[in-house]
Amino acid sequence: MENKKKRVYCQYRVSTKGQVEKNDIPMQKECCRAFARQNDWEIVREFSEKGVSGFKVSAKNRDAIIEIQQDAIKKKFDILLVFMFDRLGRKDDETPFVVEWFDHNGIEVWSTQEGRQRFDNHVDKLINYIRFWQASGESIKTGIRTKTRLDQIVKEGRWRGGTPPYGYKLVKKGKYNKKGHEVYDIAIEPSEAKVVKLIFEKYVNEGYGAQRLEKENL
Fold it and tell me: Of 78, 76, 137, 68, which is closest to residue 98 (Cα–Cα)?
């Protein structure tokens, strides 16, 4: 009797807009497809999550994970394949148990870089937990580094990005980032600045509140 190929679901995830723009998902997809070919597996579905944080967003709120779990219960596939295990999530109090859940429901969980996560003994369970404990720590450290750098940019009087507040505008002053792209600085918009100044004067000197200011034709 001919052996049937194992059916594979692939899950890809990027957490930031920058990763989306760098085409990180195609890289994950290429690696997973090559890994499946090497093992003579058949990929039957692929799921892509763009701009989804595996640290901030619970698996319970991720449509892809929910659908994959529902299909696991229905035995629609045999293997869940990811580029690296942290694509499934980075929550040390949740993701290890998500991986274990798939295993207990008869689904093998594989990473192209780390192999198969087994649960044959307590050591396997410990390795599974430590992996996501480490991933969670890396997410925390990345968040600290990002916040610290943004604070430094503000203290240096530079614009950190996004839509400027009312009273200001974006201008180019010949500054470039590390990639050679000209970046914006923030500058006062004279016509709007007059309104902002008037609002402050009425609030501080005349006791105007938000509702009263809203009714004024400034």
Answer: 68
